Amino acid sequence: MKKLRIISTMLIFAMMFSMIGFAEDFSEEEIASKLYDIGLVSGDGTGLNLNGELTRAEAATFIVKLMGREDTVLKSPSFYGMTPFSDVKGDEWYAPFVGYSYMNKVISGYPDNTFRADEKLTDKAFLVMVLKALRYTDDDFNWDNVFLTAYEKGIVTDLSFAVKEEQSNLDRGATLEIMYNALNLYYKDGSMTLLDNLALKDPDIMDKAEDLGLVKKDSKQTKISSAKAIAVNQVEVTLNETIKDITVNQVALNNGSTSYNISKVNLDGKVITVDVDANIIGDNYEITLVNLVDDEGFVVKSISEEVDPFEAPEVNSDYFKIKSVECESENIVHAYFTQPVNINAGLVLHYEILQNGQTVSTGTYNDMEAAVLGGVDNGVALYIKNINFQDDVLYTLKVQGSLTSAYDANLNEGEAMTMDFLGNDSSNEEIRVKSVSAVSNDTVRVRFNQNVDLATALNIANYSLRNVSKNSNSAVLSATIYNQGDNSSSVVDLKVLSMSTNSTYELTVLNARDVLKMSSVSNIKEKFVVETSTSSDVDLEYVIPISNTKLHLYFDEPLSPASVAAKIIGVDDELIVYNPNENYKLTVYLDKDEPINDDTTYLLQVTSGIVDSSGNIQSGIMKFSFKGTDEKEADIKIEDSRFISSNKVRIEFETEVSVANNASQYKLQYKNEVGHDVSITADSVSYVDPKTVIASFSNLPNESYQLVLYNMIDPSEQFTTQLITGEVTKE
Fold first, then answer.
1. What's the CATH number for 540-627?
2. How far is CA 647 from CA 221, 283, 319, in A?
3. pLDDT at 7
4. Rounded to 5, what percent of the chain is helix, strand, coil?
5. pTM score of the predicted model
6. More reliable by pLDDT, 36 or 22
7. How far apart (Å, rounded) are the C-alpha atoms in residues 16 and 9?
8. What is the CATH number of domain 638-729?
9. Measured in Å, how far apart are the chain's first and last C-alpha atoms?
């Protein structure tokens, strides 16, 4: 009973505050006057008699007028006056109206073949007549749900009708209000309103109706905000307002020459999802929606919009998933993942290409080659040998769950994963040298048009340098990939002996292959002029004291990890830390017993040991003056922690941590079903970089955990943070 009382109370409040609709703007007297002015009602001999109860004969007259057929009836009264009802004489004033209504299945009589014209009409019976006038049929409603249907269609706007069961006699004032509401409602097929129909007979009626305020104004015209293919056979349409309903018959899709069958539509607020019985790939598609009815009851006859073409999906996840797939040419596919990958991702056995659910290229070396992409940490290139991709044809990449990320997480929790992509029939581009230039007097930069095979591109025996001006050979000392930040490994820097300014040199690329080893260049000769006399030496740009025992040294070039062996004087350093994600910087930890002071200026000198990412070795002493600080070393803090698989947590720290910290210091805690604290210790930890740790656990239930770390030490092992906590939740 309590639930019933709550529902009843809610209904009472809803009824109190519900919109009565357009009719609430006018009183019954005003409504009657306005309908009288446009000829829809007349008096009963004693005036409009709004309080008088409606008879069945009057109801037949009202409904014929509402349908715009009064003139039709009055022109042929003898014809329409012939009715099957034994108690309706042809010369009665109401007989033609009864006959027309009966012929058009708007009214019916009693089982004894009588009409009973003087009997009072109930509200339920009149609502049936109005629904029939709006061309709804017995298939659209039944006697038990008349009130609810009338409310849903807008014929009555009082919320009480949604739950009304008992019928009651109808007075003329309430009848006119129902007619008033119905005037602006559309026929079932959405073709026009009852008022539009009246205007077909008498164009002046619409002007009068507008002057009298009988025409509803649409507060917002229904429009398509966007239309896009969200799958190869599915279109998502977003409207600027909500609509009442939509069926497959209200949707059309074509591309100019072909119309496509719509199998299903789904409406969710303003969003319509349309399923198509065909693949719709590419552009030039147009979707059309017809006879949409908005929440105010207004109908838009037809709206159209071009469909944005389908684009391959992209997945964002902390877990190891396929992120995206891009078809580069008729034989090459690049797959990107949500976590970094390592060399095992270059094994073809992990991959398979499908079309229409059938395998067309297997994970064997007869069918494909695979290679980890350089320049990004999460990409793999696949060369498909046994098929050529066709433009805008849908294919599927399947990757086995046995593939592991650089974090040692299995793809999709060990289950195979698929992702669709669109074919590209462009020709495979063979590797070539785009340009050769001197970026300093001891560095030559070679740009290839695509990712290179590191085994050949970084082999100095594959390069030969000659001074054309002096007709003498020069040595190539080392070769490194230049990280240009454009998601590729296509640029190689060659460290050479010092070259003469304004001299012409010729570089010969004896051998270089693309990353998939499908094409190669050999004996390519490129001339260039050395226009710079600057060397490639790295410069120390500035020094920032983070605390009185820690400094950050920033350089003008990205550094090699070998730079941790640098020799520094001016401070008493304990340890130098290099982070590959911050490769312009070195972190220097000082002896806590010899901290720097706030009121002292220091001259820091890097005497040797700095190596940049291209292999250039420091040749001179770097100097920088800075003022000390009295800031104490801060506690280690967690910047972010999240599950990257069902049993692994990635922890990112604000500062570097020591690799000496072990698994026993990493715990997950939660409260079980009886409220007891449960603590689970990590099985192992692995260090991705000085600020990132992967902690692995066993037998973890789906809970919200608190990550708890104990006695964490910094890289210099001089400072300990007793307790660190952070929230972490499974995906």
1. 2.60.40.1220
2. 52, 44, 10
3. 35
4. 20, 35, 45
5. 0.66
6. 36
7. 11
8. 2.60.40.1220
9. 41
